Amino acid sequence: MRALLEQAQRGEARLSISAINLGEVYCILLRFTSEENALQHIRTLGHAVSISGVDFDQTLRAAALKHRYKLGYADSFAAELALSSAATLVSADPSFEKIGKPLKWLKLPRFQ
């Protein structure tokens, strides 16, 4: 993941994250660090990654993916963003296997 972020910072790759998933990242960071440090990480991430807002139609498509594939709520927004923008989803979460071929997925190693 670090290599992808560095590529994005150099303009060699374009990365996007749903605002829903950004909130999830922030919540995870708060488990391991202070609010101040978590915010700094989120701000740094915001320099390399385009943050995609969520509208009514995206919310309904994400909800349909959640229902159809039994995904977590935030995962359904990540999948929706990747599918709607013909992008590759980058995640270690094995639940994206359920979607199959329509989703391009770069599986990262699990963080322990």
Q: Any overview of this molecule?
A:
- There is one protein chain.
- The protein has 112 residues and is α/β, with parallel strands linked by helices.
- The protein has one domain (1-107): Rossmann fold.
- 55% of the residues lie in helices and 14% in strands.
- The strands form two sheets. The chain has a two-stranded parallel ribbon.
- Helix 2 packs antiparallel against helix 3 and helix 4 (56-69) crosses helix 5 (73-84).
- The model has no long low-confidence stretch (mean pLDDT 93).
CATH topology: Rossmann fold
The CATH architecture assignment turns out to be 3-Layer(aba) Sandwich
| Sequence stretches where pLDDT stays below 50 over 5 or more residues | none
Strand-and-helix sequence, N→C? HEHHEHHEE
| Major sheet attributes | 2 strands, parallel
Question: What's the structural domain tally?
Answer: 1
Reading off the top of the CATH hierarchy, the class is best stated as Alpha Beta
The strand order across the widest sheet is 1-2
- Please, what is the average pLDDT? 93
CATH superfamily: 5'-nuclease
Note the total helix count.
5
Number of strands: 4
User: Over all CA atoms, what is the radius of gyration?
Assistant: 14 Å
The structural class is: alpha/beta
Ends: how far apart?
15 Å
The helix fraction, in percent, is 55-70%
Tell me the fraction of residues in β-strands, as a range: 5-15%
- Form type: globular
